Amino acid sequence: MSSKDQINTNKLPKHVAIIMDGNGRWAKQQGFLRVVGHENGTKSVREIVEASAELGIENLTLYAFSTENWNRPKLEVQTLMKLLVKSLKKEIKTLQNNNIRLNAIGNLNDLPDNARTELLEVIDKTKDNSRMTLTLALSYGSREELVSVVKKIADNVKNNIISPETIDESIINKHLYTQNLPDVDLLIRTSGEQRISNFLLWQIAYAELYFTDILWPDFRKENLYDALINYQNRERRFGKTSEQLS
Ligand code: IPE
Ligand code: IPE
Ligand code: MG
């Protein structure tokens, strides 16, 4: 029995988020420049996106570039932005063939004009696709997102659109970049690092965390299946006792 057959498709996480880490180390291990790692990482992206859609996962969110990643060497940042444009142009077909809707979260205004234009174009072209929503976190930082939420809510209070007493979790949810997405059920991070790196802090409040040593360019669909099987073997209690659940 392959690991795919062990997955219960009735108990899939509704939202899987992945911190795709380890491209640089993957390249270094083989004596290549870091950019070669990023290039090979895009192959993993395609495979995992297709495998997720095929399984029936409704929401997949990929951390592609953080607000902190702007501090990397200029050449690496430029290369990553070029790779983004190239991948968007190339993978629109994959998205259409698999009925996948593209979405983006983050401070998109910080992206180079050509990258933002290409991104918005693919988002528009795929907006009616319904099998899976693929969200790219680009120039994304959870703290930046939360600051933007506070500003928007403060503005609404100032303009008497809402009163402070009515602010609750649902109002905060409505102002997040992820307003149309459910909470994350499963968060995967590759490359052996066990940290969150400013990713979806609010949205992962009750996510199951899965860390693997595999470097992102080596991450294959079997590795995704393993993560899903591991997830399905956990008991999610949400504060209750085990007895209450059964
Ligand atoms: C993840 O791989 C890709 C991005 C953060 C853009 P890294 O580039 O962080 O690879 P390592 O962590 O240096 O190996
Ligand atoms: C997190 O990876 C961001 C992305 C995967 C896009 P980093 O490699 O930038 O994270 P840190 O800085 O090592 O925590
Ligand atoms: Mg890294």
Compute the number of helices.
8
- How far the N terminus sits from the C terminus, by CA atoms, comes to 29 Å
How much of the sequence is in beta strands? 5-15%
Largest sheet: 6 strands, parallel
Order of helices and strands, N to C? EHHEHEHEHHEEHH
* Structural class estimated from helices and strands: alpha/beta
Instruction: Please report the first level of CATH classification, the CATH class.
Output: Alpha Beta
Named CATH topology: Undecaprenyl pyrophosphate synthetase
User: Which ligands appear in the coordinates?
Assistant: 3-methylbut-3-enyl trihydrogen diphosphate, magnesium ion
Q: So, the CATH homologous superfamily?
A: Decaprenyl diphosphate synthase-like
Q: Count all strands and give the number.
A: 6
Estimate the mean pLDDT confidence: 98
* Gross morphology: globular
- How many domain units? 1
Would you kindly provide a brief summary of this structure?
This protein has 246 residues and is α/β, with parallel strands linked by helices. It has helices spanning 23-29, 34-55, 74-97, 113-125, 142-158, 169-175, 221-232, 242-245, and strands at residues 15-19, 59-66, 100-105, 132-140, 186-189, 208-211.
Provide the descriptors you would attach to this structure in a database record.
Undecaprenyl pyrophosphate synthetase, binds magnesium ion, six-stranded parallel β-sheet, 15% strand, single chain, binds 3-methylbut-3-enyl trihydrogen diphosphate, globular, 246 residues, alpha/beta
